[in-house]
Amino acid sequence: MSINWKEYQPGVFYDELINNNGNARLPAKRLTSYLHSLNENELQRRQQLADAAIRDMGITFTVYTEEGNIDRSWPFDIIPRTISAKQWNKTAEGLMQRLQALNMFVNDLYHDQKIIKDGIVPKDLIENSTNFRKECIGISPPHNVWAHICGTDLVRDEDGEFYVLEDNLRVPSGVSYMLENRSITKRVLPELFQEDKILPVSGYTDQLFKTLADLAPHVDQPSIVVLTPGIYNSAYFEHAFLAQQMGVELVEGSDLTVAKNGYVYMKTIGGLERVDVIYRRIDDLFLDPKVFRKDSALGVPGLMKAWQKGKVALANAPGAGVADDKVIYAYVPEIIKYYLDQDPIISNVKTFLCSDKKQRDYVIANIDKLVVKPANESGGYGMLVGPHSTKKEQAEFVQLIKKDPRNYIAQPTLALSTAPTLVSGDKVEPRHLDLRPFVLQGKNSYVTTGGLTRVAMRKGSLVVNSSQGGGSKDTWIVDTEVK
Amino acid sequence: MLSSVAERIYWSARYLQRIESSARLVNVYTNLLMDLPKDINISWYNLITLNSAEEEYESRYKVRDERNVVKFTLADDTNPGSMMVSIAMVRENLRTTRDVVPENAWELINELASYTDDSIKDGGLNRGKRHEFLTQVINQCQLIQGYIASTLSHDEVWDMWCIGRDLERMDMTTRILDAGANVLFSHDYREKSHVPIVVWGNVLRSSGADHAYRRHVAASVVGSKVINFLISNEHFPRSTNFCLNAIEKAVKRLPKGRKVMASIKELEIAKESSHSFSKSDEELSDYLNDLQLKIGELHRIFAESWFSLD
Q1: Looking at chain A, which residue has its C-alpha nearest residue B307?
Q2: Partner-chain contact A240 B99, CB within 8 Å
Q3: Sequential pLDDT tens for chain A (483 residues)
Q4: To pair with B265 at 20 to 30 A between CA atoms, which of A460, B7, B75, B139?
Q5: Cα distance from B187 to chain A (closest Cα, Å)?
Q6: Residues with Cβ < 8 Å from A174, sequence gap 6 or more?
Q7: Closest CA to B8 of A298, A246, A240
């Protein structure tokens, strides 16, 4: 028995591969007919091949539990998700537009705050933002860019259009999994890469290196490091991966020191060596115990001062997370309009701000239909999915919202798009997914070819976070116009 | 090269070498005991003494039999010196130095880890499967060594790797010699003259040295010659002399090399003074003990010079 696409039922949702009539969409044509040509044993064999490759390549992520941290193999589904290059190019443009505007916004907030003076964004929103850093006021990082690396979460609604769900401007992770997913797929479905025009994803680390190197414009061959909180961080795999791919040192806070001359050095077997650019994968508050959390053993004492004086570049810059707030998110369309005088190329998801009384009343009255999120959490923690929640949970969230309205937003429950996913070994069923492309901005801008597709592996579930049972798929941008 | 990375590379190399040594030792011991007369009381427990693990062992096992010793040496994840733990330590160290080690080395060590896990679950420790299992482990270690030697740039990382690997080899060679000597000197074999040949033959095999010995020294296995060979031979990569020379070369290429060399010289590790060991058993034993202590000192010098920079 092989896959019968006519029996595949995505229901009311937009399916990435198969349309409502059970036919393959254009970019997925060759893929679906190839999968159809494999019998169920062969399909299973390919999935096993992928699982073994993941184990051998040591692709893991860490889950924090009460019993300790567990290193889990990366859950991966072998059926890729396809997007046409034509649609992708437009989306990529929208992503660059968005990051450009967000960076102008952050830079404005730490300087003249024109956007507040002009009454576009309310002042108290910034004053009450947990990610606004007064230490950053008046600082001008290279190219006036604060968020050099951004992970933007996109979803597709029933209409097949992409929407931005979230901007991650602090320390977004996942790009290594995007790259590894492709290398696994090349091992597992090598036949398809011969004929299809699947655009390569491998340029990312080169671009990242260039973006980082451009942050030290006065140094000929800048010394770049990746700063990791260490092996117990859930994204440690990625930190090591990126350092290795870029050929730079992976350091922990204890490997670095700030000298009397204000520069940052790393401790090597030959003595101290200067560091020009730090790609830090530590949250702001842990960067420098002298300025932020005193108990941080992960950071480097004196690092903030070195950065403020321009002795070292940090990517992303401290304080960039101020634009990563889910309340600020609601203002992004106006932010784009304000700074660039353009209409947003990619739309936002409709968002209700609980700080506004009228909107709050609506949210509370309709809490069973909405998704409620705290403004500053990531990883899918602390949120309520209305239609999948109990009366008790809903009542709890009403209380939370009333207590701290500034900290909550709500969005309609999205009909997230689906894609065929291999379940229980040999059956194919639709599962919901999203997409996280990575956007770089420094001297130039760059968007990954596609991004990381995350899948909710449980039937009907909308939660795609790997810490909560999500898996992933390779993402194919297919050029359907090339003969 | 970061000090912290240097330390992890050094330990990765040591642990990888230790995995191979553990596998070799158990393999050779299994063979040795088949060749010896039943009334000769050479026990599996010697493996514990050889690794100075008496205390660890006593706290876990009552009976000193083959099953327990093999399990303790290879598969006991609570024994810090077991092969399983060494594998875990290589993984952990390479995981934190993935930015300087060729990608495939990391994949190969993962393969070794999952192969070992699966094999042990599948009864790989039992006599029937043990040889095949351990031979495979040795081969995989060799594969990783070979892969690293031929794809890692021969720069500071490589020098650090060599120092760790050769120090561990030196250490193991002295332990194997010590164990061999102990077995023989504690018994009177005049009645069974083939016993020393069996024992010394296995000492050579434990170091993977039987072939090299036959080519360089003689076809016949004689205790004093085996000792001389494993200590002072200039060409065999596991003799203590060879290892020490290799360490010196690597040290000279590294930053602060001269200072480190001076400290090594102060230790006065004699490289070629082994010709007289046939005279007295005690002398050999003392020499090996002294060498063990000096190896410990070498490690301390490396750690002080390169690993802890504050």
Answers
A1: A269
A2: yes
A3: 678 888 898 888 999 999 988 899 999 999 999 999 998 889 889 999 998 888 877 777 766 655 555 667 778 999 999 999 999 999 999 999 999 999 999 999 999 999 999 999 999 888 888 899 999 999 999 999 999 999 999 999 888 999 999 999 999 999 999 999 999 999 999 999 987 789 999 899 999 999 999 999 888 899 999 999 988 888 888 998 899 899 899 999 999 999 999 999 999 999 999 999 999 999 999 999 999 988 888 899 999 999 999 999 999 999 999 998 888 999 999 999 999 999 999 999 999 999 889 999 999 999 999 999 888 766 567 888 888 889 999 999 999 999 988 889 999 988 899 999 998 767 899 999 999 999 999 999 999 999 999 999 888 888 887 767 788 999 999 998 865
A4: B7
A5: 48
A6: A151, A238, A436, A438, A452, A454
A7: A240
Q: In terms of DSSP bridges, do strands A271-275 and A264-268 run parallel, antiparallel, or are they unpaired?
A: antiparallel
Which of A86, A67, A300, A113 lies closest to A199 in space, CA to CA? A86
A408 forms bridges with which residues in the sheet? A374
Instruction: Give the whole-angstrom CA distance, residue A258 versus residue A243.
Output: 21
Strand A452-456 to strand A470-478: parallel, antiparallel, or no bridges (unpaired)?
antiparallel
In contact, A443 and A100? CB cutoff 8 Å: no
Q: Are A278 and A325 in contact (CB under 8 A)?
A: no
Interface contact B309-A231, CB threshold 8 A: no
- Identify the CA nearest to B137 among candidates B129, B44, B101: B129
Residues 6+ apart with CB under 8 A from B15: B86, B87, B89, B90, B93, B168
Which residue has tokens 């993402």?
A475
CA distances in angstroms from A234 to A57, A59, A406, A454, A466, listed in the order given: 17, 12, 29, 16, 10
ipTM for this model:
0.74
- Angstrom CA distances, A28 to A76, A478, B28, B72, stand at 19, 8, 58, 54
List the strands of the sheet with A224-227, edge to edge: A249-251, A224-227, A277-280, A313-315
Sequence-distant contacts of A41-48: CB under 8 A, at least 24 apart: A43/A2, A43/A3, A43/A78, A43/A422, A43/A426, A44/A425, A44/A426, A46/A78, A46/A188, A46/A189, A47/A78, A47/A188, A47/A422, A47/A425
Which amino acid would we find at residue B39? D
**Dist CA A244 CA A228 (whole Å):** 13
Of the partner residues A243, A244, A270, the one whose CB lies closest to the CB of residue B256: A270
Test B4 with A250 for CB contact under 8 angstroms.
no
Distances (CA, A) of B213 to B54, B182, B193, B216, B298: 31, 21, 21, 5, 27
| Type of residue at A92 | A
Query: Which chain B residues are Cβ-neighbours of A275 within 8 angstroms?
Result: none
In angstroms, rounded to a whole number, what is the distance separating the alpha carbons of residues A53 and A184? 7
The structure's pTM equals 0.84
Going by C-alpha positions, the residue among A220, A95, A77 that lies closest to residue A150 is: A95
